[in-house]
Amino acid sequence: MNDLLEGLRILDLGRYTAGPYCAKLFVDAGADVIHVERPGAGDPARALPPLLDDGSGEAVSAVYAFLNADKRSVTLDFTTPTGAEWLRELVRWADIVVENFAPGTLERHGFGVDEMLGVNPTVVWVSITNFGGSGPSRDLRGTSLTLQAAAALMDGNGDEDREPLRYPRHLSEYWAGSNAAHAALIARRHARLSGEGQHVDVSIQESLVASYFMHFADYQYQGALQARGWLDLKPASDGPIIVNWHTAVPWDVFAIALEAEELILDPELQPPLSMTANAGRVADVISRSMRARTRREWFARAKEHRVPAGMVQTLDEVAACEHLEARAHFGSLRLPGGAEGRVPGPPYALNEGATERTQAVPGLGEHNVVVFGELLGHSDGELQAAAAAGAI
Amino acid sequence: MPGALDGVRVLDNGIVQAGTFPARLLADFGAEIIRVEHYRRPDLGRNFCFPDGVAGDAYWEQSGIYLEQHRNKAYCVGLDVGNPQGRELFLRLVASCDIVLDSHPPGLMEDLGLGYDDLRAAREDLVYVSTSGYGYGGPYSEIRSYGMMSEVMSGITSLNGYAGEEPQRGTIPLTDHPATYHIAFLMVAALERRDRTGKGAWIDVSQYEVGVNLIGDAHVARAFGASVPGPRGNGDDGHPIAGCVPCDDGSRWLAVDVCDRAAWDGLRELVEFEALDIDRDPWAQPLSAAEQERIREALEAWARSRDGDEAVSELQARSVPAAVAANARDLLLDPHLEARGFFWLVDHAPEQGAGRRAWPGASAGLSRTPAELRARAPMLGEHNHLIATGLLGCSEEEYEEYVASGAMGVTPDAAEMRPPPADLEERLHLPPAAQLRIAEFDPHYTERMVERFGDTYGSDATV
Fold first, then answer.
1. Window 71-90 of A, Cβ < 8 Å to B
2. What residues of chain A lie within 8 A of the CB of B229, using their CB?
3. A94 touches chain B (CB under 8 A)
4. A8 to chain B: which residues are within 8 Å by CB?
5. Nearest to B106 by CA among A318, A306, A63
6. In chain B, what residues touch A69 (CB-CB under 8 Å)?
């Protein structure tokens, strides 16, 4: 948590993962984020596995907790008259609105971009969808699996003779959410300076394709299509590790770091043949050598000899990592029922010292009174009537 | 058309990918980028992917990957910052820029007298964004790292692989590419605070920590005692049916994901379920492994001889999320991306050896201030004279002096260069342990590209 975006107002109409991750980046940078959820079940991410005991016997999703800490949660059904009116009031309050409903959904309920720019002409309205707001694939359904397929992420993951593999968890949605966040902020800067709001159309497919682009040159220059089966993990005695030669490191030093003298003795195993025709033999030599020591021992040797390296770490090992500890990466997270845990913080540091404090995961509608009452100025009576009508 | 970031000037001192691509993202929306490279030993990103696989005499200008990711950057200045005059020029450039982006390993720029404190002395309210594998500070800080290394450290790899098998890595260095958007976000966020408060900032992005955040939900689950199993393959979301089956007679793969009841009902309409005797709500009563396998076989029998795109249409028409597992060619030829104008045709200088190529366009569509193609990638030191005598106000004599002293230059020291990689024909026959593996060469790639992008594709209509 820092003050980079202090005072900026974000209305998070997001559900599941991509929209809420976008808004999370704003929370971590100090913005004020109100997350609108539907009454009753709330954001469907609240039901995504795995579910955690929040400290009071209630279940809360780890995904929801990660994405929505320190947001203010309100419930609102915008298909009711009061809900629709109050949503418009929130849009007037907001600098940026983030939504990831299916294309056309909000429009059908009277919350299309053009109408909303009429309500708040300086608002930045961010729509995150599977394939963007136009084009023949616009209305196709998508999941992590099928969107990774459609973005050509899977054609490089898995074994060559077996089905292609998706990458794990929700990382492709977070990836797209981070694209939405940077584009939203660029549009917000323009709105602040010019008074002109606008629509930001984010396609999950394009988010992935625009930043993972290397294979387009390979195809256009050679007709080359990449293969699956990327066997760069080497077996240390207690698990896999990666080591790479780097031109700034003399080949001999590299071989010594890896205790693979064969790479010095055999001229055929040296650059440039080591990178081309004999790459497979070099990999075999390194693999044989790696079995003699643990990942941590090799990692220390690599550090000493300035050889690029990385250990395949488990989640437990990451949580115990001395480096992350020294960088004060972990922070404290409190679930709605009071349970607390040490969880990852933002992936960056400011040179101004961190303000260590506990982030809180909001209960469903926890901030209805403060947002609808204090912020929008509705009376207790109005809030009770809205609740009775199912609007909040 | 005006860009949202008109008037913002960025000194791009980044290398390879995560540390330099964010400047491209800002350039797309109007920021003016001055790319600085150590001309004697230029960016490693220049050393991959040459026209026809052949690294020519000036191959550092001809990397397709470099041309893709540096388009829209206005200027490139070749400096030797180890030279006192080169260092002084660097600091004068810093003084004229709003943001400096750097991705050298921690310690390297400090050793040259160009760390954050030195830069801040040149410009008090500077926004300085650094990124590296592990970030500044902490015991791993100065460990050399590429994206695949911070990926494996972050725990992502421990979850990647076929269900129940050992972890494996895919081709994407997973911290590199997603990190770029985070970095661009932080560059603009710090600029916004500077405008608000007058304060500069040093923001240090650790790619290891980006990786940790990309599976942040798994780390949260672990922290609260939930069990997080290892690789779960294409069934990672726990849906009753999720995976790929062959289509197009086995030449492509069809990804199908039964994520909800609508998808389940849709699948049952298409695929012969009667014979399977599986007629129930799989969320109320989960499918057994044997049942999943029988459904998968039925789906495969349905899909194998079908055209993949038609299979997708039939499934999607019945609310079943489905997509062909695309490759680069599929995307270049994709009618949807074509309708959205996603690929941009970029003309290059003759020295770049590329002619007109189709590179990915904007990452997002801004309705009033859309991203635009403004420039091809600059060549190494192409704007030395322009920047020295223009922005920096040097005389012609001073410029000549910088060139003579080696402070500025355009030609790498050959001895410093990485040997060019093998041509792709050779790569095709490499054993599986080699990097940059190729599955196939499409002999018709040029015809396909000309058909898609028009007769001028690949031509030397240079700018």
1. none
2. none
3. no
4. 192
5. A306
6. none
Domain boundaries, chain A: 9-212+327-388, 233-314
Enter the DSSP assignment of B387.
Answer: I
Beta strands A358-360 and A330-334, pairing class: parallel
CATH architecture of A9-212+327-388: 3-Layer(aba) Sandwich (3.40)
Say which of A174, A187, A284 has its CB closest to residue B214.
A174
> Model ipTM?
0.97
Q: Is the dihedral of CA B246, B247, B249, B250 positive or negative?
A: negative
Residue B449 DSSP symbol: H
Among chain A residues, CA nearest to B440: A225
Spell out the CATH class of A233-314: alpha beta
- Asked whether the beta carbons of residue B212 and residue A318 sit closer than 8 angstroms, the reply is yes
Name the amino acid, one letter, at B293: E
Give me the tens of pLDDT residue by residue for chain B, a chain 463 residues long: 789 999 999 999 999 888 999 999 999 999 999 999 999 988 888 888 888 777 778 889 999 999 999 999 999 999 999 999 999 999 999 999 999 999 999 999 999 999 999 999 999 999 999 999 999 999 999 888 888 999 999 999 999 999 999 999 998 999 999 999 999 999 999 999 999 999 999 999 999 999 999 999 999 999 999 999 999 999 999 999 999 999 999 999 999 999 999 999 999 998 877 667 787 889 999 999 999 999 999 999 999 999 999 999 999 999 999 999 999 999 999 999 999 999 999 999 999 999 999 999 999 999 999 999 999 999 999 999 999 999 999 999 999 999 999 999 999 987 555 555 556 666 666 554 445 678 889 999 999 999 999 999 988 764 4
Kindly report the backbone phi and psi dihedral angles of residue B300, in degrees, each rounded to the nearest multiple of 5, phi listed first.
-65, -40
Contact residues, chain A, for B413 at CB < 8 Å: none
